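Input protein
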Amino acid sequence: MAEAHQAVAFQFTITPEGIDLQLSYQALNQIYLSGVRSWKKRVSRMRNSLIKGVYPASPSSWLFVVIAILATIMFSSYSYICPDFIDHMYYFNVDYILNGQTMVSALVFSTLLWLSLILALRFCLKLLLSYHQWMFEQHGRVSNVTKVWVTLLRLLSSRKPLLYSYQTSLPHLPVPPIKDTVSRYLQSVRPLLTDPEYKRMTELANHFELNLGNRLQRYLKLKALWATNYVSDWWEEYIYLRSRGPIMVNSNYYGMDFLYVTPTPVQAARAGNTITALLLYRRKVNREELKPTRVPGTVIPLCAAQCERMFNTTRTPGDQTDVLQHWQDSEFVAVYHKGRYFRLWVYRAGRLLSPREIEYQIQRILDDLSPPQPGEDKLGALTAGDRMPWSRMRKQYFSSGINKRSLDAIERAAFFITLDDEEQGMRGEDPAGNLDRYAKSLLHGKCYDRWFDKSFSIVIYKNGKSGLNAEHSWADAPTVAHLWEYTLATDAFQLGYTEDGHCKGDVDRTLPMPQRLVWDIPSEVQAQVCISLAVAQALADDVDCHVFPFREFGKGRIKKLRVSPDAFIQIGLQLAYYRDRGGFCLTYEASMTRLFREGRTETVRSCSNESSAFVKALENGEAEEQCRPLFRLASERHQNLYRLAMTGAGIDRHLFCLYVVSKYLGVESPFLKEVLSEPWRLSTSQTPVQQMELFDLKNNPEFISLGGGFGPVADDGYGVSYIIVGEDMINFHVSSKHSCSQTVSNTFVSFISQCVYICLGIQERWRAKSETKLHLCTLRMWCT
């Protein structure tokens, strides 16, 4: 009970002699130091608010403006009194000119002028960031307008920005003309429909555009004028938070560890470094020390709003909709091990524990042999099952008493840690099968040993392998991937380990024991846990995951062909799906809209007329000379669709918002209803590597990230995630459902491998022929 006494700052006892007051100076000192840390954070936030509030200017520029105005007043005033200014400088009386009233007036005027200049600079920066024509220009053919634009943008961005410095300067997401959206939609579905079906859909679309569509568009434009982003709040609420089914598999996604390397086989040590790296990243986010994310290879910033709810965040269930709760700070993490929940304090007296100290505390948890309390071991299944039963249980049995205190410890934690008692990774005699089991473990685990409501949960396996499971509503995969890249690199290259695999540093062995969370789980809750677990287990058992590290070639060879690597892979996926299922399907590729404030994603409809024409020509046995230009057209079309989606001219978010408006107005649209009920049988996403400089793959080629994946969107479809690593590798994560006899992840991966080879061969053979012809022509000219 020593740790319990340390938590009490003072005790008093009433005796016949009076009141006996006992102070715990150690506890009071820790309270004092924690308060100092809290005030330091507040001062830091105030300082950062000032710096980013005046960006792209600086706070010190105010002094420059004041001095300039005062100097101007002094010069003009004395010149008026004494025109022969230089000859009479000796007699110059500053007090005469700069009296109190003049000083106050000068300061007020200078401040107003300074604020006006800041607003003008921010307006100019916003105008510059609203220019997107650069994206549509061909590589190597930059227009003069774009060159001037880049120069001006560099000038205005020359000061070192904080993480959120650009937020108020980012443009708002524009509402596309309804005519353009309808036209693009009809083009996207043309390869999927027969002539009669396409004619019917065209009539529906034209009727919608000429009648109800314009009315809905006016309401949407009104929202766009009022809101920061006309899509994001509705997208978060209606796509994620209002879903009443399980978020496990259906919404949450996962990220994996290094493929070939495990930095240490010691579970507690890996947990110590991982927790430390995550908390260092949180410190950078809180202090806004992270550099703003930019479009690769440019100075163009992306919205950083998703970072705000990365830590200390949980999704709480409700009857009709869930709610995202975020707390400013948390000094502890929640840990799960063998059916028990712990609160692990990671700060002491305002100081972040060292990695070695966190390892020491984790080892204490691993060594704790106490059994779970009744109903405790599988309590996490409530977060894996349907949302409404979890909402009822939470309201009825977790809203007061010890259950509320323990639940608060989990929900208010910085993040959630699972110390898994299994070993995972690419190992043993069946490395491919073990990778698949590793993916399934991160996606759903045992359905009760993760807390799927937390913003993200870290899993540390018995053999030192790690991974994460992320809740989707608060942010998209690139934001979590940025966090995970930093964590892996900091763990392996900065914090490091001793020769025997332990964390570096010293240990304060007076640290209090990690706190066991106490529960009182009634039989009604235990019964619901069993029901939720059965629902989640059925869903987990149905998922078929296959992870495929493709090592034959990567973006290096693809880019030599002057083809976008993403377009290349997407065309390969279209060919693979056609060979697997004998036709085309509605294909979803996630694209970001973070060029705009609070932007999230847009859909790129990868199955286009051009890609389907190439696939049909190839499958019909056309000669390579006919297929090659079709491939080029498909690639260019895909790149154009991606650019349109990134610049706010996509299809699906606009139609989604029009549908929401129609529901608010209580009107039915057959066109919108049909569009939003179409299944995405091929859902794809690329996870970009954003911080390649952290890994140095030339000197450390074995430190390759596996990326991550997600569950299938449609019951009869595939989920495909891929990450392009370095120049020579592409990792694929494919998921489907066993319950559909037409989808087998292993088979589809085989088709992907086969089809990307075919696409590469067509282009490389043409390139070789072109180079041979060029060499012959050069030789003839030389001979002549």
About this structure: Confidence is low (pLDDT under 50) at residues 1-10. The chain is about 50% helix and 15% strand. The chain has three domains: 34-137+152-157, 178-238+545-773, 242-542. The first strand starts at residue 10 and ends at 15.
